[in-house]
Specification:
This protein is mainly β. It is built from three helices and 18 strands. The protein is globular and about 50 Å long.
């Protein structure tokens, strides 16, 4: 949770919403150079091309650092073995930059849902290898705690990276991305939530995995609190549907208790 003193929308999209990409082998494609990357399995560095898959949200909880995005952003391949799927996850990249250099978030492992309900299991949590994080990137993880949950009628902000606005994923001098923020009020909130915003006919493809924040007047009566309430699953046409953060935190708590 963060606190601010003016009612305007805080500039949160650049803080913790990052591009989720998959890499593919190659030297050049449509004039864009590949980039050197050493995969987690210890394979030698190779030239890879990055394709934008959507958004991911970075947060810190219980002293640990995580990235979360939706399961449906990872293509399902019929008949794929568990080993092959794990190998494919090595090509998943969440990009970060400091305006000069670009890098990827280092992951230790991934957490999936064991549930069978489609919406409630539509998430993947990347457990970050903190010691390998560049110092500049550590402030980009949004602080999370369990004290707050969105309610119908709350003012909410949905932040993500619509695909049609992202011209390049990576370039010399840093990443060029264009996050947006849709503001409105929560129409409903249970395990999942629905945010309604004024229809503007803009497509939201690529917003999946982005974050929904809720803001409220603080107890002191003059400052405002903003907290992460969930991750975007789908949207468009004046609404955003998202998975409540508590489902994700429950999975993390189970992992930390192992």
């Amino acid at each position: 949770m963060l606190r601010f003193t003016a009612p305007q929308e805080p500039t949160i999209a650049d803080r913790c919403i990052r591009p989720l990409c998959f890499a593919a082998s190659g030297d050049e494609h449509y004039g864009l150079d590949g980039f050197e990357l050493t995969l987690q399995d210890g394979a030698v560095a190779r030239r890879l091309l990055f394709g934008l898959q959507g958004s991911a949200a970075l947060f810190q909880y219980r002293g640990r650092y995580f990235a979360v995005f939706t399961r449906h952003q990872i293509a399902t391949i019929s008949g794929e073995t568990a080993a092959a799927f794990k190998d494919r996850m090595d090509y998943l990249v969440v990009l970060m930059d400091d305006g000069t250099d670009s890098t990827s978030v280092p992951f230790n492992t991934y957490l999936f849902s064991s549930g069978s309900k489609e919406d409630e299991s539509d998430y993947v949590i990347g457990v970050v290898e903190y010691e390998m994080l560049p110092a500049y990137s550590r402030h980009q993880f949004f602080p999370v705690e369990r004290r707050h949950t969105g309610r119908a009628g709350d003012l909410a902000l949905a932040s993500g990276l619509p695909s049609h606005l992202q011209r390049m994923v990576m370039e010399n001098g840093g990443i060029r991305i264009h996050p947006i923020c849709k503001s409105g009020h929560l129409k409903s909130r249970s395990v999942c939530g629905v945010l309604r915003y004024p229809e503007d006919l803009e497509p939201l493809d690529g917003m999946s995995g982005g974050a929904v924040f809720v803001t409220r007047l603080a107890g002191d009566g003059h400052s405002f609190e903003i907290f992460l309430d969930g991750i975007i699953q789908r949207g468009g046409g004046g609404y955003v549907r998202y998975l409540g953060l508590e489902i994700i935190l429950d999975r993390i708590d189970d992992y930390l208790a192992e």
